Amino acid sequence: VTAVAVSCAPTYEVVKKAAALGCNLLVCHEPTFYSHADTTGWLEGDPVYQEKMRVINESGLVIFRDHDHLHAHDPDGIYFGVMKELGWEPYRADSGRRPMFYTLPETTVGALAAFLKEKLEMRSVRVIGKPDGKVTKAAYIGGGNLSFDDANTKMMMGETEVMIAGELIDWTVMSYVRDAAAMGYQKTIIQLGHFNSEELGMKYAACWLPPLIP
Prior knowledge:
Layout: E1 4-6, H1 12-20, E2 25-28, H2 47-59, E3 62-65, H3 68-72, H4 77-86, E4 101-108, H5 109-120, E5 126-128, E6 134-141, H6 148-156, E7 162-165, H7 170-182, E8 188-191, H8 194-208
């Protein structure tokens, strides 16, 4: 190992940049080749796969996907990293292996969405519900982690006023929140996208990796 790059997703742009910087190890969280198991047989002959593989092979880059281990760690590496990068340690409202629930200083959904946009360097986020609603009880559900029924239940029981979500399906918890908001309840979702919602966790990985690699 001579130089290491860290990324949430090993996109073509990331692979090229890592190679250009002289990195020979790329630590990432998501698949390289478009499926959960990262198999490549089904891509033989595909020009996109061939070009990406060419850059990887010619640069000598090794890609290590740290997904299940990172989530299985105590604490969960992604969720802990998100909490640290957002500066939310003082607001944590649960004590499990995976930091997800927070009691924040009172803010509006719009202000919270703007804060997340800035931290994640995003141009826009999707808000379902009322942006001017005041909230304190927040849940951060990165990626596509919780089942949609669990997410719905926590919203229904009042444990959450705003859910900061990665990947959800419109006809499940989003539909519940939309209906609840129309009835006047303070229920809101800020949807970031799967990769965006976990990216801060991999950013934090760059802090704990160096001591492992002299």
